[in-house]
Amino acid sequence: xxxxxxxTQEAADxxxxxxxxxxTQGRAEIIKKIEVARSEGDLKENGGYHAAREEQxxxxxxxxQLKHMLEHSHIGTPPAGESGFVGAxxxxxxxxxxxxxxxxxxxxxxxxxDLDVYSENSPLGAAVLGKKIGETVAYTAPNGKSITVAILxxxxxx
Length: 158
Fold this sequence. Notes:
This protein has helices spanning 9-38, 47-71, 123-128; strands spanning 6-7, 74-75, 90-96, 99-105, 116-118, 136-140, 146-156. The radius of gyration is 21 Å and the shape is elongated.
């Protein structure tokens, strides 16, 4: 089942601000660190230089990730679709092993606060995606244990 990534306006604004910071101040800071480390001498044995280059690589990867996410996601509220079914961008309340938990089904990028987030591709996410509210499903956890989940509620994340 192909899923679309939905971002709230707040999440999209937060990601755009992070991207703008990384592309401007972030890059300038890394360049400065690399220049300082390079001036210290032999690059083969210069730990500061290698650390700065690694940090630069991670930052550039994050920039690419943010650009891709912002270009390929929808901003706003997902269409209602079929009422009563679990979908991406929804906050799910479920009973797992007698414990009631609430989590967001989607990307950690859209979450704010202390809400747990599970990807639609995670074992739990894949098990509940497209299921009806009130339905009980089972999935196999990465440790091989079978876990039963009762879907109690599903509402769009706001």
